[in-house]
Amino acid sequence: MPKPIVLIAEELSPATVDALGTDFDIRDVDGTDRPALLAALATAHAVLIRSATHIDAEAIAAAPHLKVVARAGVGLDNVDIAAATTAGVMVVNAPTSNIISAAELTIGHILSLARHIPAAHASLAAGEWKRSKFTGVELYEKRVGIIGLGRIGALIAARLQAFGVEIVAYDPYVTEARALQIGATLVPLDELLSTSDFVTIHMPKTPETTGMIGAAELKSMKKTAFVINVARGGLIDEAALAAALRDGEIAGAGIDVFTSEPPTDDLLTSAPNIVVTPHLGASTDEAQERAGVSVAKSVRLALDGELVPDA
Ligand code: MLT
């Protein structure tokens, strides 16, 4: 009997393939090459993806044998869950696999902005020695506003305690008691924006959250404040952010995620006082191993017709 076909559509850790074992016919395809993806899906029983591959209704329709879509990471905004469910295709992810990595990258962006680390590096590497130009600010006694106090937001709050900052948060789904346990005080979004020195956003991307930080919200922030987005491109309106940076409405931004990846223009990447990284939140050895092994186990269970437990 032929082995079930498991399609790997993005680069995953070697541990993923080890965890899949030898019971499957494992094939690779570039998930961003749409015609190649659709052709490969025609025979696939499972497909493993990260964030670059779009498993939408068209992809589901092209995959008559598909039983499971496995997202090696947290976000499911690149999977049409409704279309999958209608077609009887299970969707699994690895919701805790990369939360520490995402939280640590956020702290990295905060420190990079506060102390101008990337710009100072570029200046010295270009042969300059400019100390006063790169005078920064301490985090100590500053106010950090966390929008979205879920798993990643809570890890960031825990790590920030060591810097002696005051933490406020906005999250309509978190209780006052839970926020206090995390070390944060819940405040309305407008208060968070107008009083924080650093604002970091950790919301899923949905129609409600897309563009939730736009021109008006950026204008309401302190001119000395920094904004960080390591969550999803488009939560902060990119054109509004570029304009706010150019007009000096805020002091700087740390951006890891983009509406279109890679970005199709340099609107944001060329803005002043910005630190950009190419969607690296989950890109650590540890997170990739956890995510790959977790979804490989779920794929094995799903293709064996077993119950896949919640991760
Ligand atoms: C996630 O949603 O977990 C990350 O975006 C994963 C990734 O980088 O692939």
Shape: elongated
> What is the structural class?
alpha/beta
Looking at CATH, the homologous superfamily of the largest domain is NAD(P)-binding Rossmann-like Domain
Can you list the strand order of the major beta sheet? Answer: 8-7-6-9-10-11-12
Distance between the termini: 31 Å
Verbal overview:
This protein is α/β, with parallel strands linked by helices and 311 residues long. It folds into two domains: 5-97 and 285-303, NAD(P)-binding Rossmann-like Domain (Rossmann fold, 3-Layer(aba) Sandwich), CATH 3.40.50.720; 99-276, Rossmann fold. It is 35% helix and 15% strand. It is built from twelve helices and twelve strands. The strands form two sheets. The protein has a seven-stranded parallel sheet, with helices on both faces. Strand 4, helix 4 and strand 5 form a beta-alpha-beta unit. The chain is elongated. The two termini are 31 Å apart. D-malate binds next to loops.
Task: Tag the structure with descriptive keywords.
311 residues, alpha/beta, Rossmann fold, 2 domains, 7-stranded parallel sheet, 12 helices, 35% helix, binds D-malate, NAD, amino-acid biosynthesis, serine biosynthesis, phosphoglycerate dehydrogenase activity, NAD binding
Question: Can you give me a brief rundown of this structure?
Answer:
GO terms for molecular function: NAD binding; phosphoglycerate dehydrogenase activity. The chain is of the alpha/beta class and 311 residues long. The protein has two domains: 5-97 and 285-303, 3-Layer(aba) Sandwich (Rossmann fold), CATH 3.40.50.720; 99-276, Rossmann fold, CATH 3.40.50.
